[in-house]
Every structure is written in C-alpha cells, then in structure tokens.
Design brief:
There is one protein chain. The protein is mainly alpha-helical. It has 2 domains: 93 residues, no CATH class; 81 residues. It is 84% helix and 0% strand. α5 packs antiparallel against α6. The longest helix has 72 residues. The chain is rod-shaped, with a radius of gyration of 40 Å. The chain starts with a helix and ends with a helix.
Length: 201
C-alpha cells in the first residue's frame, strides 16, 4: 500500500510539475486537463489548481480510504481499498460543484476547528486560573483552621498544667506526676503534628 501511495504521489507531482513547467496557454495541456480529467478550464492556474483540484482530491481520497478501512470489506486486500479510494476521489473531479463544496467545507472545518481551539484555550485557561485560585484559597483556609485547632489544644493543655501546678500534688503525689506527664506527652504530640504538617505543606 505504501508503494502504491508513493507511486500515485509521484505521478501526481510529475503531472503538476509538467503543468507548471509549461506555458498555461498551450492548448494541448488545457485540452487534456479539460477533456480527459474533466477539470474546468478556468481552474488551470497555479492557485486554483492547488485549492480546487489537489487539496480536494487528497482530502476525498483520505476520507474514502478511511471509510473503506473502517468497513473492512477487503481485510486482506489493502491495495484494493487504496485503488477504490483513488478511483472514488478521482471520479469527483468532473463534478465542479462537488469539488467546490469539498474545498469550501474543508476551509470551513479548518476555521471552525481553530475557533473551537481558541475558545477552549481561552476559557480553559480562565477556568484553570479560577480553580487554581480557589485551590490556593482552600489551602489557606485549611491552614488557618489547622493552626487555630492546634493553638486551641495547646492553650487548653497549658491551662491545665497551670491549674495543676497551682493546686500542687496535695495528698496524692503519684496522680499529680502522672497527670503532668500525660499533659507533657499530649503537648509534645501536638507539636509533632504541627511540625509534620509544616514539612508537608
């Protein structure tokens, strides 16, 4: 299939080069293009040949080949699919209105694709910025809430230690020591949580 496509491309390029190399006023070239290939005579200029013949032909051949491959009518004969796609695209050249429609539709699809890309890019960037900003705000609020909870717990522990030290050991020194140790361990755990949170944020 690759060799066949290469052959078609070479033949096509040779034909185009021969046309460009010659004078467009030569009657033989215009007669062959008009009578044999069915190309309108007003299209035999460089710009119109490219946009009204070459581009529609290649686009139609690509669409036809893709359609035939999806249908899988000839799964073991790929050359047949390429040949049919070439013939299907080639047979539309005499249909001037259809070729114009193909050219116009390709241009319209290209413009529409770029418009969609532009809209998606602009709105996507704005949406990304908004979501990113909300993420920063959410992280800031979460950080403030975490700091507030940690300070609240540490303040409560400190207050308990102050009250406990104010009351003194009394008649039960063992309970006093255990409670002081429990408060110290709790305060240390909260400091460790705060340090771990700072290391990960």
């Amino acid at each position: 299939m690759k060799k066949f496509l290469l052959f078609v491309s070479i033949v096509f390029l040779i034909s185009v080069n021969s046309v460009f190399a010659q004078n467009w006023d030569i009657s033989t070239v215009t007669e062959v293009a008009t009578n044999v290939f069915g190309i309108p005579q007003e299209w035999l200029t460089a710009q119109k040949l490219i946009f009204n013949v070459i581009i529609p032909f290649l686009a139609l051949m690509a669409v036809c080949l893709g359609m035939l491959k999806q249908l899988r009518i000839f799964p073991r004969a790929q050359y047949v699919e390429v040949l049919l796609a070439f013939l299907m695209a080639f047979s539309t050249l005499p249909l001037k209105w259809f070729v114009i429609f193909v050219t116009w539709s390709l241009g319209a699809m290209g413009v529409w694709a770029y418009i969609i890309f532009f809209v998606l890019f602009v709105f996507g960037s704005l949406l990304f910025g908004i979501m990113r900003g909300r993420g920063y705000v959410g992280e800031f609020n979460a950080s403030m809430a975490f700091y507030k909870d940690v300070n609240k717990e540490l303040d409560q522990i400190r207050q308990k230690r102050i009250d406990l030290e104010r009351r003194g050991p009394g008649t039960n020194p063992d309970a006093y020591v255990k409670e002081m140790q429990r408060l110290e361990i709790a305060e240390q755990k909260w400091h460790e949580r705060l340090k771990a949170w700072r290391d990960t944020h």
